[in-house]
Amino acid sequence: MSKPVVILNVVGLSPRHFEQPALIPNLAKLNCRPMKPTFPAVTCSMQATLLSGKPPSDHGIIANGYFDRDSYEVKFWEQPAALVQAPRLWDLLPGKKTAVLFWQNSMFINADIVVTPRPLHLDSGMVQWCYSKPAGYFEKLKTEIGDFKLQHYWGPVAGIGSSRWIAEAAKWTYRNERPDLLLVYLPHLDYSSQKFGPSQPQALREVDALIGELMFDDATVIVCSEYALTPVTGALYPNRQLRAAGLLRYREIAGKEYLDFELSDAFAMVDHQIAHIYCKPGKLEAARQALVNCSREQARGYKEIEFATIAHARAGELIAVAPRDKWFSYYWWDDWAKAPEFAHTVDIHRKPGYDPCELWFDWKKFLSTRRLPTTSTNPALVKGSHGRVDDDPRDWAVLATRDEIGLAEKVAATDLAPLICRLLRG
What we know:
A hairpin with a 4-residue loop joins strand 3 (65-68) and strand 4 (73-76). 47% of the residues are buried. This protein has helices at residues 43-52, 56-59, 89-92, 137-145, 160-177, 188-196, 201-213, 238-244, 284-292, 299-302, 363-369, 416-425, and strands at 5-10, 31-36, 65-68, 73-76, 98-101, 113-117, 120-122, 125-127, 130-133, 181-186, 220-224, 230-231, 235-236, 250-253, 256-259, 266-271, 274-279, 306-308, 318-321, 327-328, 384-385, 397-401, 411-412. It has a nine-stranded mixed beta sheet, sandwiched between helices. Strands 16-17-19-18 form a four-stranded antiparallel beta sheet, with helices on one face. Helix 5 packs parallel to helix 7 (201-213). The termini are close together. Helices cover 24% and strands 22% of the residues. It has two domains: 5-230 and 388-425, Alkaline Phosphatase, subunit A (3-Layer(aba) Sandwich); 235-382, no CATH class. The chain is of the alpha/beta class and 426 residues long.
């Protein structure tokens, strides 16, 4: 009979971190292999690949969001399982009891146990809730291990607290539910790397301590990551370039500028170091030139932009890839008095792109206005980003194991799902 398999997704863990064994005594005991991500190396895309064994051109998760051409809306961090157009591990392993804690696109999946954040936004405020299956499982966990704090999971006060809660939920689930496959997502190193840089000793120590608690003796424990982060020194603004070229259009509503998805000839949905450029017919080359022929003050970054494609209907007609030391901001306005209200808040669904500035408060604005603190709009604060897939294995993700499980010294992200199937089928 096969042993249970536990997958610990330590987001942001890099082969380079294993060069500092004193910081990671628990992880250093494992056999670490570089694991090449699929492009783009962002959370939702990579998670779908890890769990299906398929690339984004097959499973359809082309970023953390996509442009819905039918509704003219950019949709970010959508959770329904049906968005993933390929079978995942719980589909590939019928009859095996599966528990999935905090992975993306896990609402309504065919797994036995599921927990994923799903706050309720009411007129009276936000209810910090998680969708769970079976119904009431999240409430049971709260009774057993305490409440889950969404503000520790994302936003200016995000920290080790959310990963510690998830680790406690994993321990309780493993002891009491005995799943054949337990999938655990630990985000702390990822957010810390964006705020302080990819080689932040405290975050490494904190995550390593959690790993030590989750190395169950009677299970095959596999530690993986989705990508490595690289140091960055500023943002690039593809939507401003497209606007300057007359390709991006906006509507002014109540004194604020909102991107006009219907009438724009081209716009960018940004996601860390990649940007899906959605172009109307005949506008692709104009969009490419708008990004290449940039203003003088931004030439240093833009001249190094690369371009890629993903063969899937959800992908942009063009995909821009930032230089290693830059990332893409979604901003399209030039006058900050015209910026939409959501630019100053934690609002992961209405922004047409990922906004790491949500990890900071704007204390300068707070001190000058004495109003409730808003989130920062200073891209220079961001110290780490990801999304590119380069050739150096030290900049890939990792796959680390305690047991010898018959893998090559270098693996690909598409190798994990077949490996898990082999281990659990015996």
